[in-house]
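Annex B.
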Amino acid sequence: MPLAKDLLHPTPAEEKRRHKLKRLVQHPNSYFMDVKCPGCYKITTVFSHAQSVVVCAGCSMILCQPTGGRARLTEGCYKISTLFSHAQRAVPCEGCTMRLCQPTGGQARLTDGCSFRKKPQ
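40S ribosomal protein S27: predicted structure tokens.
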């Protein structure tokens, strides 16, 4: 008797709803993000589920505040997205619906208005 659903190939929606340890490939819900301060434009690395207020080292502005789960970014602060330089598909911004880059077969082409910086090795 066949199963009603495929256990080996779950849909992305089902996989996202599952507990972090019960997914097909285990991975955490938390991550580290680079946040740019709107006051002094300094970049700070922040944990997504920070449990304390994170302030900018340059100007002492509050970057994010804790909630029950994920930390909430202060208005004006924004998360810097990390992209693979040779991305094979269009990468959307997490905060809005804008596409950050377009695939070209080789290096991905950034959308007008986007800028990049190389991460130190």
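Residues 82-120 form one domain. The radius of gyration is 18 Å. Further annotation is deferred to the next reporting cycle.
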